[in-house]
Design brief:
- The structure holds 2 protein chains of 2 kinds.
- Chain A is α/β, with parallel strands linked by helices.
- Chain A folds into 2 domains: 1-63 and 239-451, Alpha-Beta Barrel (TIM Barrel); 110-234, no CATH class.
- Chain A is built from 18 helices and 8 strands.
- Chain A is globular and about 70 Å long.
- Chain B is an alpha/beta fold.
- Chain B folds into 2 domains: 2-76, Methionine synthase domain (Methyltransferase, Methionine Synthase (B12-binding Domains), Chain A, domain 1, Orthogonal Bundle); 87-218, Cobalamin-binding domain (Rossmann fold).
- In chain B, 58% of the residues lie in helices and 11% in strands.
- Chain B is built from 9 helices and 5 strands.
- Chain B has a 5-stranded parallel β-sheet, sandwiched between helices.
- In chain B, α2 runs parallel beside α4 (56-73) and α5 packs across α9 (196-218).
- The chains are: A alpha/beta, B alpha/beta.
- At the A-B interface, α12 and α16 of A face α4, α7 and α8 of B.
Amino acid sequence: MKERWTEVEPGAKDKQEEQFAIWLSGKGIPFESSEAERIYKERIGLLKDAIQLIKPPRRIPICPSPGFFPIGYAGSTVYEAMYDYGILVRIWEKYCNDFAPDAYNAPTSIVPGKVIDLLDFTLYKWPGHGVSKEQPYQFVEGDYMKAEEYQDLIDDPSGYFLRVYFPRIFGALKPFERMPLFPLIHEMPLVPPGIAPFGTPELQKALHNMMDAASEAIRWANRVRALNGSIMGKGYPTFSGGFSKAPFDVVGDSLRGTTGVMMDMYKHPDELLEACEKLTPFMVRAGVAAGKANGHPLIFIPLHKGADGFMSDKQFRTFYWPTLKKVIIGLVNEGLVPLLFAEGGYNSRLEGISDLPKGATVWWFDHTDMVRAKKTVGKVACIAGNVPLSLLCAGTEDEVKQYCKSLIDTVGRDGGFILSTGAGMEGAKPENVRAMINFSKEYGVCSKTIL
Amino acid sequence: MHERLVKAIVEMREAEAMGCVKELLDKGEDPLKIVEQCREAVEIVGSQFEKGEYFLPELIMAGHMLAEISHMVKPVFSKGLEVKRIGKVLMGTVQGDIHDIGKNIVTFLLDANGFEVMDIGIDNPPEKFVEAIRNFGPQVVGLSGLLTIAFDSMKKTIKAIEEAGLRNKVKIMIGGGQTSEKIKEYAGADAYGKDAMAGVLLAKQWVEEKGDEREMDRS
């Protein structure tokens, strides 16, 4: 197999500049006023300076992760936000208008309920479908791929997803089991038998289910796109323009499950490593495609199973990091900036992850020692974080300000830092969110030229 | 052979461990002895975890091997195994939260450290905890949760335990995800455990204190 994504290509820096320039241009955004456009560009400038590590930004950018917070804040339920797109739009506009973060997360994680209803999705429980209408959706742990199926995944990842995995996780797509093996359909006599399964009523019904769900997904996406236009038009950039994952997490989260993948490190180590390698090109392509389509450099990558406690450092360096690093390099080579969200603690990984090109990634931490992070990975990457959710939910405004002050004093003042929350801030007290943002904007000035 | 079994489990060599058990059973070995060896292995795995040598994969593998062995031993194993236990702990994830990896680690380590553990699983409403405290009579209750919605559930659970008149019968620890000292105060728990080992140490300390109190009552 061709060895790719091991080295940063010489043109990567120029491509990154181009990608930032596209983002900064604000092309196609219906700005409300020239002042809104100026603020939009100024905010992107703060992020660009924080990320590239060339000079400190004029002030530290403040980009909390809203999670489900805007929903409760607007007095709505998660159910309403997932099922009524009009309500979702009002919730998100209210959040941005009331708190004025330097970048906001588009509500793409508030998934349209009708779409997953139509597909009869089994991988999660969602409001009205396994959890109450007020609660966030939650993942259902399971081994959706059996250990003996590694070879099938390795032989043909897309075919495996289509014919084995989808029928398991989408009740409405069960007949996808009948899909033909596509590489066989390449000679004239092979066409009629090859396409025959598509003539069965079962598969046709399943395809119609998929089409109905897709039409709904487009209706939702159009509303979200219009919403994004409106929010960006007021001067708020989005915090990321695409999504990807660590190949190990694809296997560990959604295919084999936590228990499965942990045992596979002992019982099927070679298959696990090969599966991660096979999934790597998909993770690179997904991020590149989204980043280019949205004209945005940042690609959000939530990291799960490599956190402190989940595995030893040796296991991390053997199973988790090599293919994640390839995804990172693959994105960096296309001018993109991986926004790596290290959920949980990453204290034992800080040295291991420091082997990266300078000014090309953002590491967003939760329960990680930020001072140590600054001294290690902070030498090559912008770090972000980590106001604790427990403080935002149960603390006082003064405690929140004190925490932000300490972050800014210890790791923020000389640049390379984005102030954010440790995770999606559902349940936070609004006054604490306001205190975090307003205090840090004022206190986080890096140079005398005030924004 | 016994040492080989312990070593095979501790060093995560599943096939060898299963081979040992089969050989021992074929030779007519007392299944009780096999189970004792397994306990010894679990204790070593637990202490390796505590030392930071072992992590989640090893705990899960050890749990998996024990389940397999108990499956092999059960048919020839009629009488119950009495193991001396140092105390009882009730473990559960609170209402609204369906996460359990962290809780399972604590349960495993408590068991490896000699506790009798009742694990009531995920998404437990307050009344489930109250009922389990009544039926099981633990000295320690562990409330687990990953999401921020767990904060209020923990508070409600502890309130329900109070209202049921059981609060002074148990020590309550919380842990998982976004919990902290701050949330301990918010929920009204006795302690917060920042990781699985902290939970075990808290349980040990409380059970010893309770033991001392009982000694004092008697004298």
